[in-house]
Amino acid sequence: MAILVTGGAGFIGSNFVMDWISQCKETVINLDKLTYAGNTENLTVLKDSPHYIFSHGDIGDARLVDQLLAKHQPRYIVNFAAESHVDRSIHSPEEFIQTNIVSTFHLLESARIYWGDLKGKRKDNFRFLHVSTDEVYGSLEPTALPFTEEHCYKPNSPYSASKAAADHLVRAYHHTYGLPTLTTNCSNNYGPYQFPEKLIPLVIYNALAGKDIPLYGDGQQVRDWLYVSDHCSAIRRTLEDGSIGEVYNIGGLNEKTNEEIVGTICKVLDEVSPRRDNCSYKLQIKYVEDRAGHDSRYAINADKIRNNLAWSPEETFETGIQKTIEWYLDQQDWVENITSGAYLDWIKKHY
Q: Is the pTM of this model over 0.85?
């Protein structure tokens, strides 16, 4: 048996590929375009694994996708492939529309045709799982109840709008064609192998490099934080027992302001890797102009996946952030390799 994972060289995708092979001992075909945030170094631990196959390509390349499906006959397709950074979507929205909407459409078409030709139990057991985000729901007021799966979509950035469009396509392919789809909407992920443009690895990287730690606006934007291994286990549970056509919100149950996140990272770094002058890393925090259209709060209600699929996160933010910081401290070669080229050009331009 095998599964096809798209975008499996990115942050969440690579963690999922390693988790799946570790837990299921099943072949994973990883299709990844290897944009700036896709990194084959994330998966060097699998280089000699008989269960891992890498294919360099685009999910929008129907011919390639069709060939992979025909050759490997996967029982699941798990779609992580996406442009995912809000700031980049503000400055360069077109590539988000192309990847997150148009290419997702092509992938769905290939999946529909492939599934349509399957027979018996192989057809009954096939699943297409689309990984999405809580940002499709828009922004919450400070006292509002967290997002449920019934919340209306109100995306506020080109990134979240493109993901919302993809979610609607997935829903349409289930209701129109019967494609056995599942959609997960997760809160902010963090953990090993995250590209240092997102808040947590950026703070760690800049702190250790002696650079300013940028904090948008007043730093009071609230996010729910989900450790990446918990996200992987939630996706596994959804594939195992999720109801076809359903949406499952996946949250870490850790609402924190960005200011709290930055302060916590600085505090942990002060303890485990002090500055040479023994001053706190908090001295490097620099409040910068707020991002255009910055959503004030995201929060996930994960009751559905907890009650229906018996899933809940294992990590608290305190345990997860400790593991994350220790990983980045132990993986300085990975950090040095990834923080070059396109990343440095982008970071210099915007910070």
A: yes
